[in-house]
Design brief:
Length: about 260
């Protein structure tokens, strides 16, 4: 669980395609001085890179203005002793650890060889292990179980399902004979999907199915294998999934090789 939380918190920018850049400076020249304390090109370029990672564009002058304001405020805070309080010392310790952790994970992810071939191999494995289906079904939505059982009895005696849906269903699909069209399991509430998955095409449910919407009498009209999404459509999702897995594995390894006392 700890690894998953760390992966979620520390790799968001990387997974979004905006890896944190820690140094793009062209030297240590001073670009400004605040009460004798220098602001360097390295600090300016690092701050500019952080702005860019957040989707913010800023000129060099705007970045320096930001750093000047930060320097002024931090100097004032130090004069007041705010940096010496236990809470602030703890926050600064955590902030330093977080920056170093981001640097470590950035270096680690950049070393990964997630080529198109590797991504396609994962894509092929997922398709091979997935037996996804789509269903075409109709339903009659009723307010109570007793009425639903009564309708099932009529259907067992030969009543037409579409006509029964028009007559009894309280749902919006009733006027259309209860037709829900094609859908995959994830599009419906779990109770409905589970019932449909166990049914035989052409048959109606032998018992009412209860959901938050009411009581359903379901007829499975047809089913078919679900066509997988094209590789190019899901390539980025697969990359992010593999990246998360590898980062979690890496952090788990750090845990396994450390002496941790709680």
């Amino acid at each position: 669980m700890a690894s998953k939380l760390l992966v979620s918190a520390l790799t968001a920018a990387i997974l979004a395609g905006n890896p944190v850049t820690f140094a793009i400076a062209d030297g240590e020249d001073t670009v400004a001085s605040v009460n004798g304390k220098a602001i360097t090109t390295l600090e300016r370029d690092t701050q500019a890179a952080q702005f860019k990672a957040r989707g913010q564009n800023a000129t060099d002058e705007q970045v320096v203005d930001e750093l000047v304001s930060l320097s002024l405020m931090s100097q004032e805070a130090e004069k007041m002793g705010l940096d010496k309080t236990p809470t602030m010392e703890a926050e600064m310790k955590i902030m330093r650890a977080r920056v170093l952790a981001n640097a470590l994970l950035t270096q680690f992810t950049e070393s990964l060889d997630l080529t198109d071939d590797a991504l396609r191999n994962q894509y092929d494995k997922q398709i091979a292990s997935t037996q996804a289906k789509e269903f075409k079904a109709s339903h009659i939505l009723l307010e109570d179980e007793a009425k639903a059982k009564e309708v099932i009895g009529e259907l067992d005696d030969g009543a037409d399902f579409a006509e029964s849906a028009k007559k009894y269903s309280t749902g919006p699909s009733g006027p259309n004979g209860g037709d829900l069209g094609w859908f995959d399991a994830g599009a419906m509430v779990p109770e409905f999907s589970q019932a449909v998955a166990t049914m035989e095409p052409g048959k109606h449910s032998a018992e009412p199915v209860k959901t938050d919407f009411g009581w359903h009498v379901i007829k499975l009209d047809d089913e078919r294998a679900k066509s997988p999404q094209p590789f190019e459509t899901v390539k980025d999702q697969i990359r992010n999934m593999m990246l998360r897995d590898k980062v979690a594995e890496y952090i788990d390894g750090l845990h396994a090789n450390a002496t941790i006392e709680r």
